[in-house]
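Predict structure. Chain length: 205.
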Amino acid sequence: MKAPVLVIFVVIRLLVCSQEAYVDSLERKREEHSVMLLETDQLLNEKEQRGIVRLDYFPVDTTWRIEGKLIKDKGKKFEMPTSTERKPIYRRYGWVCLRHDGREFRLAVYENLDLKGKEYKDYLFLPFKDAGAPLTTYGGGRYIELYKPKTTKSTTIIVDFNTAFNPYCVYSHRFSCPITPEINHLDFKIPAGEKNPIFLKTDGQ
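Prediction complete.
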């Protein structure tokens, strides 16, 4: 009887280690993102950086790393509204059907037709806006990067809301960012991923 108990223990330990590695990896990426934004001049200038106290995130919650069903359903080309007058050309690639804590929902995923090159061949764009916006999460919606399954027969895809990030226009008006289409507005909160940053308060605030 000892052998099965040992096997169960090993399996549980492996699962715990895998989960810890996932959380550590995500925390590391968040720190790298913060350093890139606030401590280098790659995207923001010094004035913009001074206005941000820190980036803010929900605690990592592995239940929001969801295996969903991908339904390919290409739509017509359209001009995606952005935070500026720029209107890049997108097309709906399909839908991801998801389930979390008994709630079923679906989101449209898009292809950016303005992106050229082999590195973007399988790239998919998932913008969404949850009910936490605009107080907790960005009012224009957050983004998740996805990639088409390696085989055309695959109908599943991992959507990890812990990786949801803010568009750069949250930090600076110099950037032009797609605004989440209304079809991807959710009437419930998704407490995972990036929150609104903590901005430096001024006398007028």
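Summary: The CA atoms of residues 66 and 159 lie 5 Å apart.
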